[in-house]
């Protein structure tokens, strides 16, 4: 069962200009996105810079305001309610946490690790100082660090260690969903491997869900069960990992996948030819996959667990039915 | 011995940074050659000294706080002996450089045309008209659409991929025989990365120059390089032609790195390979012994050499230390 549902989410930023500084137009950072997150699963959100993937994560956790659309947490409408102190939203605040790309700037440099990590605990639990300490030690241990680390300051750690502390802190409030926004993009390959391993171990141990936001298709493939590909603020394709990677349908997905560098230098030439073929196809068929305003079409059911944003065949009754059907099921 | 000299020859280069009164070597005894018509990739993780190597070749270090030893031979000249004035004739004219951050390496107050023609003003005696023609030619070469309009724009008006193309155009302006590209696609999206890499390979085919490509991304290496040098803690630990390196990686570091690339999971308990420990800091680098030894503690001490050197294990394939012969991953049989 999905415990978090995002329905037709739109986040638009006004562009002001003119003499009177009036609103001239909108940047449609997120423009009608549906998403549902099940417990224990990892949901990958992929897109290039500017596609709106981070905005979705920030809106779910309440760092950005939704322009329209709704977010439901366990049936409760929690849209734009993250800052509310009302009791009925308390669970939502506690259960949704975030890991940021840059661990350094997400920690107060003047606080020791124990204080950094105790903050979410103080907010949601009545721990005694002794209990807090025990819990911090326990959390540090699951990300492979010594309990002594709690008396150090953030700058005393390497980038990978800091990111692991970031993961441990996100787990501190015992959440159900962690939004991980490019958690390993600033890390080296071998350090990235470590952080990803810990994230997966914690997921197994606590039955967590992740909303894993990344531009790195390899990392997303490694971590995710379900994937959505974003472009221009909308989903172009959504489905299981197998469906997206083995059987991509939208030209944008194909283009992204073909651009991933191939680890086999012997097939370099063939890979380049294929990539340029897809690129040419993308240029030639843009009108087939985007409407005259350059907007991505609505998602349509392609297969059982696979939705693709394709051009509606005929604007007639059958399409309307199709749309209602997909909207209802997702 | 071959009579002909390589395009660029680096002999036993050491670059030390000053901490107090002691110099610590970020690049420690690197020897490399670059030939015409070749892309040599230098791959390693942050802090391994790969960028310091590039800036040492270009002479971009502050002599007060750095100590550079060894030789960088280009056309029978040791670049490290040159004074600033002579070096400036080499930079841009003979050796072009492409940096990671295109926004940081472009002047925000100058139009694209001014920035490219500046490189031509310094190093050539073309007149205004000829320079304009050359700028247009360059912009076309790097695949910028509508060059007449774009060259009147400022850097902030272009996208990241376009800016990087402009930076490449500047590096190419004087047709340098050597190009050093330091992480040229790291800040870019995959689709743009693919375009820029294609562009670099095409340009290299056209001009026949030698390119040193510095990157942390093994995928980029596999897509573009002819030859690869893997760096760890200031030293080259493995050097081989690209097919050989990916088919037969030998050094424990190279093998570990290739193993930690995210892949599709095979079963629930499948985990990525993690390299034990952390990269030693410059001050704590052991002067002697295999620098990778502390990160593979399950390999017996006898497997390492006392003073590891590069051994040629097969033609053109060099590996440092002897520990690769006994290496196996932890928990795995040999």
UniProtKB/TrEMBL annotation, chain A:
One of its GO terms (molecular function) is ATP hydrolysis activity. It comes from the Bacteria. Residues 4-257 form the ABC transporter domain. SUPFAM superfamilies: P-loop containing nucleoside triphosphate hydrolases. GO terms for biological process: peptide transport; protein transport; transmembrane transport. Residues 310-330 are annotated as: Disordered. The keyword Ribosomal protein does not apply. Pfam families: ABC_tran, oligo_HPY. Signal peptide: none annotated. Keywords: ATP-binding, Nucleotide-binding, Peptide transport, Protein transport, Transport. Belongs to the ABC transporter superfamily. This is Peptide/nickel transport system ATP-binding protein. The lineage of its organism: Bacteria, Bacillati, Bacillota, Bacilli, Lactobacillales.
From TrEMBL, chain B:
GO terms for cellular component: plasma membrane. Residues 8-258 form the ABC transporter domain. InterPro entries: AAA+_ATPase (IPR003593), ABC_Ni/Peptide_Import (IPR050388), ABC_transporter-like_ATP-bd (IPR003439), ABC_transporter-like_CS (IPR017871), Oligopep_ABC_C (IPR013563), P-loop_NTPase (IPR027417). The keyword Hydrolase does not apply. CDD domains: ABC_NikE_OppD_transporters. GO terms for molecular function: ATP binding; ATP hydrolysis activity. It is a peripheral membrane protein. The keyword Membrane applies. Pfam families: ABC_tran, oligo_HPY. It is found in: Cell membrane. Belongs to the ABC transporter superfamily. This is Peptide/nickel transport system ATP-binding protein.
């Amino acid at each position: 069962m999905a415990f978090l549902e995002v329905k037709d989410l739109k986040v638009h930023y006004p562009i002001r200009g003119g003499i009177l500084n009036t609103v001239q137009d909108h940047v449609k950072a997120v423009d009608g996105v549906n998403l549902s997150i099940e417990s224990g699963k990892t949901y990958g959100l992929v897109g290039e810079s500017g596609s709106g993937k981070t905005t979705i994560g920030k809106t779910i956790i309440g760092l950005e305001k939704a322009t329209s659309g709704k977010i439901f947490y366990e049936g409760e409408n929690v849209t734009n309610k993250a800052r509310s102190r009302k009791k009925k939203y308390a669970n939502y605040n506690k259960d949704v946490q975030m890991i940021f790309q840059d661990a350094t700037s997400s920690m107060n440099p003047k606080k020791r690790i124990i204080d950094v990590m105790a903050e979410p605990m103080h907010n949601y639990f009545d721990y005694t100082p002794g209990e807090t300490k025990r819990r911090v030690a326990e959390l540090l241990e699951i990300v492979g660090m010594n309990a002594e680390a709690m008396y150090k300051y953030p700058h005393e750690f390497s980038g990978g260690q800091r990111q692991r502390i970031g993961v441990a802190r996100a787990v501190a409030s015992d959440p159900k969903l962690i939004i991980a926004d490019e958690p390993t993009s600033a890390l080296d390959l071998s350090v990235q491997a470590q952080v990803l391993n810990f994230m997966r171990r914690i997921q197994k141990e606590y039955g967590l869900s992740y909303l894993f936001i990344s531009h790195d298709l390899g990392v997303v493939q490694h971590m995710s069960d379900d994937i959505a590909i974003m472009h221009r603020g909308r989903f172009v394709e959504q489905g299981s990992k197998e469906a997206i990677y083995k059987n991509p349908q939208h030209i944008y997905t194909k283009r992204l996948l073909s651009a991933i560098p191939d680890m086999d230098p012997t097939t370099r030439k063939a890979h380049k030819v294929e990539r340029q073929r897809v690129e040419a196809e993308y240029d030639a068929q843009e009108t087939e996959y985007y409407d005259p305003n350059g907007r991505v079409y609505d998602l349509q059911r392609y297969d059982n667990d696979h939705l693709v944003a394709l051009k509606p065949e005929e604007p007639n009754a059958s399409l309307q039915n199709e749309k209602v059907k997909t909207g209802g099921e997702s | 011995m071959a009579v002909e000299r390589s395009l660029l020859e680096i002999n036993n280069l050491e670059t030390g940074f000053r901490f107090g009164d002691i110099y610590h070597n970020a690049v420690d005894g690197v020897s490399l050659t670059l030939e015409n018509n070749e892309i040599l990739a230098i791959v390693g993780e942050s802090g391994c000294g790969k960028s310091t190597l590039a800036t040492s070749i270009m002479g971009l270090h502050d002599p007060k706080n750095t100590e550079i030893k060894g030789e960088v031979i280009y056309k029978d000249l040791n670049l490290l002996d040159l004074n600033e004035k002579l070096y400036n004739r080499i930079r841009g004219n003979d050796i072009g450089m492409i940096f990671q951050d295109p926004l940081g390496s472009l002047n925000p107050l100058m139009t694209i045309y001014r920035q490219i023609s500046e490189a031509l003003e310094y190093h050539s005696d073309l007149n205004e008209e000829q320079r304009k023609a050359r700028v247009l030619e360059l912009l076309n070469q790097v695949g910028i659409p509508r060059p007449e309009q774009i060259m009147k724009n400022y850097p902030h008006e272009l996208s990241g991929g376009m800016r990087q193309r402009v930076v490449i155009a500047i590096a190419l302006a004087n047709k340098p025989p050597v190009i050093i590209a330091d992480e040229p696609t790291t800040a870019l999206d995959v689709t743009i990365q693919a375009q820029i890499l294609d562009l670099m390979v095409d340009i290299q085919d056209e001009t026949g120059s030698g390119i040193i490509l510095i990157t942390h991304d093994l995928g980029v290496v596999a897509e573009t390089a002819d030859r690869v040098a893997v760096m760890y803690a200031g030293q080259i630990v493995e050097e081989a032609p690209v097919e050989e390196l990916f088919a037969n990686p030998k050094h424990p570091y190279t093998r570990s790195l290739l193993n930690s690339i995210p892949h599709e999971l095979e079963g629930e308990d499948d985990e990525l390979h993690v390299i034990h420990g952390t990269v030693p800091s410059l001050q704590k680098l052991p002067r002697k012994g295999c620098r990778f030894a502390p990160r593979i503690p399950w390999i017996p001490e006898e497997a390492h050499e006392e003073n590891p050197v590069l051994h040629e294990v097969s033609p053109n394939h060099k590996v440092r230390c002897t520990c690769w012969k006994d290496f196996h991953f932890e928990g795995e049989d040999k």
